[in-house]
Amino acid sequence: MPVITLRYDTLKALIKGDVSTKELVDKIPYLGITLEEVVDEYMKVEYNPNRPDFSTSYGVARSLNGLLGFDKGAPSYSIDKGGVELVVDESTQEVRPFVVSLVGKGLILSDELIEEIISMQEDLHDGIGRHRRKMSIGIHNLDVLTPPITYTTVSSDFKFVPLGQKEEMKIEEILRETDVGKEYGHILYGFDRYPLLMDSFGNVLSFPPIINGELTKLRPSTRNLFIEITATDLGTADDALAVLAATLNDSGAQLESVKVSRGNSIRITPDMSFQKMKIDVKLANDLLGLKLTDQEVSESLEKSRISVISEDGRLIALIPRYRVDILHQVDLVEEIAYGYGFEKLTPTLCTSKKAGKPDETHYLIGLAREVMTGLGYIEVKNYNLVSRRALYEFTNRKPRAIVKVENPKSIECELLRDVLFPSLLMVLSRNLHEEYPQRIFEISKVFNRDARASTGVKEVYHIATAISHSTANYTEAKSSLGSLLLQAFNLKIDTIPTRHPSFIQGRVAMIKLAKYNLGIIGEIAPSVLENFKLRNPVSVSEVDLSKIVHIVKQKV
Predict the structure, then answer these.
(1) Are residues 331 and 414 part of one domain?
(2) Which residues contact 395 (CB under 8 A, 6 or more apart)?
C-alpha cells in the first residue's frame, strides 16, 4: 500500500477554513486513510491504491474540505483551449498505441511541490499503471520545447541524452546500462522499434515507459509543464491524466488542452466532464441500516465531493472525473457512508436467537479437502479465467459451448474453465525444478452453458488431482481417487475404459457410480506433456464433486 507524508502547514494552507492539527489527525481516518506515523511536523498515511487522487496533499485536502463542510460538491475545472498539438505516428500502434496530454501553466515549483509531483507520478505508475506496463507518465518543462510534439518510434541505435546523464546514449545502451532500463526494459522486449516523443526540432522529451530526456528536466525555475501519458490502455491513460489535471489545478496551474492527432482522427485531452450515475436510495439504506431521506443522501454525497441533481424525479450523482474508483452503485453507497459519517453508525446485534450451522455442501467438500491433504497432496488455487490455448489447444480438446469474457484484458484470461486439470498441468509446468514426486489437487467451480440455469451458465464443483514423477501411472491415480471417495463419502466407484484426446489411449477410463458419470482418470498423453513442457509422466483424475455431494445427501 502506498504511503505519503502530509505536512500540517501545507495541509492547513489547502483547507478552506480554520482547523487544528488535532482535528486533521482525527478526521484523516474517516476518509478511509490509515495513519502510519504522527509526529510534531507531519503525519505519514497509507491510502488504498484505488484512490490515486490521495497520492498528494492536494487530493487529501480536497476530500477533507468536503468532509469538514468547507467546500462541498464536485469540483469543476476550467480548461482553456491550448495551442500545443501532439502528432501520433502510426508506427506506435504496434508498441504502445495510446497517448494523452495536457499543459499546466503558471506554476511556482517549490522543492516540496516537485517532490509531491514526482511521488504522485511513481504511485500512479505502480498502481493503475501496473508498474509502467499499462501506463507511464512524462512531466516536462514546456518552455524548452517547440511544438508540435511528435509521438513516433525509432530504432535501437537512436541517440539522445537521457535524464541524469551528460552524454548521448543509444536506446540499446539505455536499456542495457541504466537502472531504469534494467528495471523496465522487459516491457519493450521483443520489439525492434521503440516509442519516443520529440518536438519539432528533434529534441527528445521521453523514451516511454523507460526515461525522460535531460533537456526537459523540471527545475525550481520551471513555470509551464507539458504532460504526456503513453499507454497500452486508453481508459487507464485518461484516468491518470484526470488525477494529474485535478492536482495541478489545485496547486495553482491554469490547465490547457492538447490536440492529439492521429491521421484524420483528432482528440482533445484532458476530458474532465462528470460521470453520471443514478442513486439507489433504497439500496443505500438497506446496506447501511439507515433510513436516510433523499435530502440526507444528497448532503452526504456533497460532503464526499460528489454533486447531486434531480432528473425525472430520480437523484443523479455527478462524479468528478478524477474519482476513477467509483464504478458501481455500491461505490456510491460507500461515499454516502463517508459523507454521513461512520462515527454516527450504531452497531446492532443480530435479532435472531437461532444458532447457525455449517452449510452441508461445503461441509462435505471440506471432508474431501481433508482427505486429500491426509493422502499427501498439496492444494493449489488457480484462477477460473484461463486462456483458450491452455484449456483446449494444449490439451488436444475441441471447444464446446464455451463461456467467454466479452472484452478480456489479456489472452490469458479469456475463458471460464469447464474442467480443472489443464490448470493443474500449468502449475506443474511452473514447478519443473521443484522436488519430485509432486502431488497436487484443486477444488473449485467449473462453468458450462446451460439454458436451464437462470444465468445461462451452470456452475458445479469439481475436484481434480495430478501426480508427477518418473513412474506416475494410472494405478496410482486410481488408488488415490478410490481412497478419497471411500474415506470422505463411503463410496466405491467403477471405471470403464474410454477414449479422451488428453490421455494415452488404453490408459484412460470413465469414472462411474450407478447411473452417474462422475469424471475421467488416466495418464496424460505425451503430446500434451510436450505442450506444457513437462518432463515427467503425469497421471490425472477429475470428478464432479457436486454430483458426489448430491449422491451422499440422497443416501442420508
Answers:
(1) no
(2) 421, 422, 425, 501, 502, 528, 531
- Cα–Cα distances (Å) from 65 to 6, 303, 371, 526, in that order, read 15, 8, 57, 66
**Spatial separation of the C-alpha atoms in residues 144 and 222, rounded to whole Å:** 10
pLDDT digit string, tens, across residues 358-379: 888 899 999 999 999 999 999 9
Helix (H) or strand (E) holding 497: strand 494-497
Same domain for 336 and 251: no
- Are 325 and 187 in the same domain? no
Same domain, 248 and 111: yes
Q: List the CATH number of the domain containing 17.
A: 3.30.56.10
Q: What is the CATH number of the domain that holds 209?
A: 3.50.40.10
Considering the entire predicted model, what is its pTM? 0.70
Please name the helix (run of DSSP H) or strand (run of DSSP E) that holds residue 548, with its range, or none: helix 545-555
Residue 304 shares a structural domain with residue 389: no
How does strand 265-269 pair with strand 254-262? Answer: antiparallel
Choose one of 67, 100, 123: the last residue of a domain.
67
Q: Is residue 72 part of a domain?
A: no
Q: Which domain holds residue 493?
A: 360-555
- Per residue in 388-398, pLDDT tens? 999 999 999 99
Residue where a domain terminates, one of 344, 371, 388: 344
Burial of 139 (C-beta count, 10 Å sphere; 0-12/13-18/19+): buried
Q: State the pLDDT confidence band at 556, using cuts at 50, 70 and 90.
A: low
Q: Go through the chain and tell me how many residues it has.
A: 556
Task: State how many domains the chain has.
Answer: 4
Q: Which residues contact 131 (CB under 8 A, 6 or more apart)?
A: 125, 184
Q: Are 30 and 67 in contact (CB under 8 A)?
A: yes
Same domain membership, residue 258 and residue 224: yes
Distance between CA atoms of residues 417 and 319, nearest Å: 37
Among residues 321, 225, 309, the alpha carbon closest in space to that of 271 is found at 321
- 143 and 121 in one domain? yes
DSSP string, 416-479: E-S-SHHHHHHHHHTTTTS-S-EEEEEEEEEEEE-TTSTTSEEEEEEEEEEEESTT--HHHHHH
Residues 6+ positions from 262 with CB-CB distance below 8 Å = 87, 88, 90
Which pLDDT score is estimated for 525?
A: 95
User: Exposed, middle or buried: residue 449 (CB in 10 Å: 0-12, 13-18, 19+)?
Assistant: middle
| Tens of pLDDT, residues 449-506 | 888 877 888 899 999 999 999 999 999 999 999 999 999 999 988 999 999 999 999 9
